[in-house]
Specification:
The chain is α+β, with helices and mostly antiparallel strands. Helices cover 34% and strands 17% of the residues. Strands 3-2-1-7-8-19 form a six-stranded mixed β-sheet, with helices on both faces. Strands 9, 10, 11, 12, 17 and 18 form a six-stranded mixed β-sheet that branches. A hairpin with a 3-residue loop joins strand 1 and strand 2. The two termini are 24 Å apart.
Length: 471
């Protein structure tokens, strides 16, 4: 008979991560993986989810970390174990990447073998004592682990996560939480409509009493990378086209006037050693991210294609707004006016989307207002009004200037009756790392200790226990 946990008896700290043991929180995303200790304000380990692939004598070698994916090594390729939908596609690489995120900053790496570290004489006694020791050491032997997941993760994917944590890493206890629920917790809310605008996708997650309402959970690809694609189309169709040359290809540059062609000398690589196109694409994305952070804005309060109160069009008004300067790595610089609003407008109005053969236009149902309407239509009417008064906006791409104001205006236009209240952390770190922060809060609560799935329970019930316990 399986022992049940009494509410009056304190859980075993070795099994459930009591105060003496530091729980870890791991929040993997498409662009960035975050890891840190529960109870802390921000994650100590923040590394790219991308990894470098370089050829070696023993076959392709994987490199992890910030420097690994931004250094133009010979023939370097860039990969990502997570798909644009946030689902893991390469479990072996994902496991290595996450383990690197944990061991590089948070836990001690495995000690080197005394037989080979040059500090000891070679003796048979030492060899016998060390037999089997390395196979017993695992990175999370002493740390319970809380992981975040997308709201649309599959059952098999959830079971794989607990297998990795307990079998591969030796974690004594585990918990799996939906990222939308954790973002609501980070905002101090048990019930909220969480709008997470990340890099690869935007998700709408209704949360009620600490549980995700699966019916209303939706995702679409209109997010940060989509805005980058809109910028690429704007740059390529400009007259003349605006160059997008990454930093690693520039040797030197000479200052030029706004709009004048760049005057730069470019770096060349020996034939057959050039970095792969995937490496260049990632470096171009870094430029576009900087452009989004410093130039791009969301038009408001009305739609860019609409008319203003004076009878003119908002497009004409946008052209007269103060333009913002930006300099490319090769020295080309320009003032950007209408373009800074055009790149984001199709998040709200599909008619303003730019498209070509490789970048098809989104459907009307993929815009943010329609996604929210679809999500709320799946929810009980009684809950709907409460969620509209607790809209939580998170994700790095929601930091674009004017985003929250425009979203509130769109929601008020769709739902004139209920009071719409939009909450969003003002601190950049809290907006970017909201799900990790929610996990840090949850795993550090004294009342949460009895929730952990212990290794003993895992051994008894198998990986399927995660489906029953982690709703």
């Amino acid at each position: 008979m399986t022992a049940t946990l009494s509410n009056t008896t304190a859980p075993n700290t070795a099994d459930y991560g009591g105060d003496e043991i530091s729980a870890l929180v791991l929040d993997p995303g498409y662009t960035v993986t975050r890891a840190g200790f529960a109870g802390e304000d921000v994650p100590k380990s923040v590394i790219p989810s991308f990894y470098g692939i370089v050829p070696s004598v023993n076959g392709p070698k994987h490199l992890y970390g910030e420097n690994a994916v931004h250094t133009p090594l010979p023939n370097i390729e860039v990969g990502n174990p997570i798909s644009q939908s946030g689902v893991v596609e390469d479990w072996d690489t994902a496991t290595q990447l996450w383990e690197y995120a944990i061991t590089s900053r948070l836990t001690n790496t495995k000690p080197s073998n005394p037989l080979t570290n040059g500090l000891n004489d070679k003796t048979n006694d030492l060899k016998q004592e060390m037999e089997g020791v390395e196979t017993q050491e695992k990175p999370l032997d002493e740390n319970p682990l809380l992981m975040s997941e997308t709201g649309w993760n599959t059952g098999k994917g959830r079971e794989k996560l607990i297998e990795i944590a307990i079998e591969n890493w030796g974690s004594p206890a585990f918990w799996l939480a939906r990222s939308g629920v954790l973002s609501a917790f980070s905002a101090g809310k048990a019930s909220a409509l969480v709008i997470d605008v990340g890099a690869a996708s935007t998700s709408i997650t209704p949360v009620h009493d600490g549980l995700m309402l699966k019916k209303g959970t939706l995702r679409c690809p209109l997010a940060g990378n989509y805005i980058s694609d809109q910028l690429r189309l704007i740059f390529s169709t400009s007259q003349p086209p605006i160059p997008l040359t990454p930093h690693y290809l520039i040797n030197s540059k000479t200052p030029v006037d706004a709009g004048a062609p760049s005057q730069a000398s470019y770096r060349t690589f020996p034939a057959g050693t050039e970095p792969h196109s995937s490496f260049r694409a990632l470096q171009e994305e870094r430029i576009l991210t900087e452009f989004k952070e410093s130039v791009v804005a969301v038009w408001g309060p009305n739609r860019l294609a609409g008319h203003n109160q004076h009878g003119g069009t908002n497009l004409d008004t946008a052209r007269t707004q103060n333009a913002r300067p930006f300099e490319m790595p090769d020295g080309y610089n320009q003032l950007f006016g209408l373009e800074r609003y055009r790149a984001t407008e199709s998040l709200f109005d599909v008619k303003m989307a730019l498209s070509d053969a490789s970048h098809p236009a989104p459907t009307p149902n993929q815009t943010l207002p329609q996604m929210i309407a679809q999500s709320l239509s799946q929810i009980d009417v009684d809950v709907r009004q409460h969620l509209l008064s607790n809209v939580v906006v998170v994700g790095g791409s929601s930091l674009i200037y004017g985003f929250n104001d425009r979203l509130k205006q769109e929601l008020e236009a769709m739902y004139p009756g209920p009071r719409v209240r939009v909450f969003s952390p003002g601190i950049v770190v809290e907006r970017k790392f909201s799900s990790w922060i929610g996990g840090s809060i949850l795993a550090s609560l004294g009342t949460f200790h009895q929730m952990w799935i212990s290794k003993k329970e895992y051994d008894e019930h198998g990986p399927g226990i995660v489906e029953k316990r982690c709703k």
